Amino acid sequence: MNIVVCIKQVPDTTDVKINPETNTLIREGVESIINPFDAYAIEEGVRLKEKYGGTVNVLSMGPPQVDASLREAISLGADEAYLLTDRTFAGADTLATAYTLAAGIRKIGDVDIILMGRQAIDGDTGQVGPEVAENLDIPHVTDIRKIEQIDDQGSIYLERLLEEGYVRLKTKLPVVITVVKEINEPRLPSLKGKMLAKKKEINTWSAKDVEVNEKRLGLTGSPTQVVKIFTPPKPAGGKVFDGDIKDSVGKLLRELRASGILMGSEKGDE
Amino acid sequence: MSSIEVIFDKCIGCGLCVKACPFAAIELVDKKAVINEKCTYCGACVDACKKYQAIVITRHTFEKHDVTQYKGICVYAEHRHGKLSSVVAEIIGAALKLKNILKVPTSAILLGHNVKPLAEEILSYGVDEVWMIDNPKIGDFAEDIQAGLVTQVILEKKPEIFLGGGTIFGRSLLPKVASNIGTGLTADCTELEIDPETKLLKQTRPAFGGNIMATILCQYHRPQMATVRHKVMKEAAKTDSTQGKIIEMNHIPVPDPVIEVLEFVQEESETVNLADADFIISGGRGIKDPKNFALIQELAKAVGGAVGASRAAVDAGWIPYSHQVGQTGKTVNPKIYIACGISGAIQHLAGMKGSDIIIAINSDPEAPIFDVAHFGIVGDLFEVVPELLKQING
Ligand SMILES: Cc1cc2nc3c(=O)[nH]c(=O)nc-3n(C[C@H](O)[C@H](O)[C@H](O)COP(=O)(O)OP(=O)(O)OC[C@H]3O[C@@H](n4cnc5c(N)ncnc54)[C@H](O)[C@@H]3O)c2cc1C
Ligand SMILES: Nc1ncnc2c1ncn2[C@@H]1O[C@H](COP(=O)(O)O)[C@@H](O)[C@H]1O
């Protein structure tokens, strides 16, 4: 089984604070982490390898400091690491990101499964997975909460989370799979893994090392254009009732009724 | 190639750009702004430097489309088990609003088997045309073949705007279509507007877990595509007089699916699913014990709502992950969201801030949830919730 896990380095949003004067994110002291969903993808890749044999390759596109996240993935059980880094990749939207990652996956070659996170917690789009699949002309399935099994015929059985429940699906390898956090419980890095990670050679590729049309990279290859970034207006903070509970509940329901909202049997026979 | 440049003669080293940059990509070196490799060309610095105009982004773009060939607003009509998804009326609502300004026809793409009644329902919202492919091979969860079909319909019909629901299915299907066509796609928009001068679609969406909003344009590629967050746009109203028509597009060949659905399981624990619920009652660590979720359930039942939870409650194993609301769980936009024993960590807020009315029940008056709540009750939830039940049950 040749597995690629695409991981993205993101700012740890638990630390993200807004500067009230400038209305911008305070980045100082904010740590960079592996996108939380991608940590589940790494773990799932390692588990598949343990079950079916093979190699887990981690792949990322980003600035040179992503090196640290790739090393962390090695410490968590990945075998090989690849970093796509080049000034021309900068400013990529999901279309250009997926185009570039797909070129990296083709260069790794003969891939059976591509695992990705459901979405990155900075961009929050969840588009890169399906777009990578499109670039490779293979199927994709999103929001997978369980990989049941892979049989000898190269069929893979999956459980996909939906709004109202889940579906069990079957499809053929190769396939792109995006995972939700319910899929597993990621392990902690082992001591041996940490040692390995320190020494590991990270394969670093620039635009010249992969087969790409330069015009499809980075900002130039991105149809979408961010024209404005702003902080959402803070809600004014509402009415807080802190007296006697019976009283508070009564006041609350009156307020709701006043704004035309009825709850429960108050709703009558509507 | 595109580039970003600091014009050193104009840069006075004021540092406004450094503060404005959301990516920590600018440093001051010898009192001049220097841009490092973390730059994503977002343009926040260019805005910040309006006064001095010392930062210039030169943008080139690949293979521009002939935008004049594209006309009209199209929506993707998602449906499941023979029913249109509730998000469809919302995106039609959004499309009709855009139509008022652009004065162009509206349409919907409908794929499936025996879907004619759905086509008629769509027309009753005042949509001008339904582009329909009716074929037994098109199953409910088949984005594998649907992506190719939608692409072909779009390339043939050439709408300038194409919108889909920000549902699990929509957010899986539309990226494949956008990539296939080679156009942009803005995820999970909460606001859509037409720029009065350029007539371009201004797409606004939350990012960074809702901490920032971004407005996005797709200038040179068509269609301008977006998925739209469920429960944000106002639904279109049904009318009796339908003038629109159904256009069958069965000349487009339907390939065999590669994804096979083995089983669909509706999760029993949820009476109403979170995405569609008008009322959501959520419990957090303050619930203290899995048994106590029964109280939350009781309240949810009394108001006909769904049960949500914070990650803390899910991680503790008190309730399944499918109930988790927040950055790593579901995003919800109900009419009323009642947070019981939830502190209001930003990751939780990311998933429910869009609710019309937020009600917080928390024993700690300093809990950050009160900063976003429209109404709050300070008190022990084990007293407040039963009292609430008593009073609403009359
Ligand atoms: C990358 C990342 C992603 C995350 N994603 C999510 C996510 O998707 N969803 C999410 O929810 N969290 C998420 N979190 C976790 C989040 O930061 C918080 O840890 C979590 O939301 C806290 O849950 P809580 O409010 O239930 O618990 P706590 O923070 O412990 O709050 C419990 C609250 O209950 C109150 N309370 C206690 N007893 C009572 C009582 N008897 N009556 C009334 N009030 C009482 C307390 O005053 C307190 O305010 C994420 C974190 C990270 C780092
Ligand atoms: N620059 C990147 N490098 C590697 N993987 C990425 C990158 N951007 C996104 N991904 C993958 O795509 C998933 C979805 O990201 P997004 O579409 O940005 O929300 C992530 O969870 C990653 O698995």
Give a description of the structure.
Chain A is of the alpha/beta class and about 270 residues long. Chain A has two domains: about 1-215, Rossmann fold, CATH 3.40.50.620; about 230-270, no CATH class. Chain A has six helices and 15 strands. The model of chain B has no long low-confidence stretch (mean pLDDT about 90). Chain B is of the alpha/beta class. Chain B has three domains: about 5-60, Alpha-Beta Plaits; about 65-250, HUPs (Rossmann fold), CATH 3.40.50.620; about 275-394, Rossmann fold. Chain B is built from eleven helices and 22 strands. Chain B has helices at about 15-20, 45-50, 85-100, 115-125, 145-155, 170-180, 295-305, 310-315, 345-350, 370, 380-390; strands at about 5, 25-30, 30-35, 55-60, 75, 80, 85, 105-110, 130-135, 160-165, 185-190, 190-195, 200-205, 210-220, 225-230, 245-250, 260-265, 280-285, 305-310, 335-340, 355-360, 375-380. Chains A and B meet through helix 3, helix 4, strand 9, strand 10 and strand 11 of A and helix 5, helix 6, strand 11, strand 13 and strand 14 of B. Adenosine monophosphate binds near residues 35 and 126 of chain A.
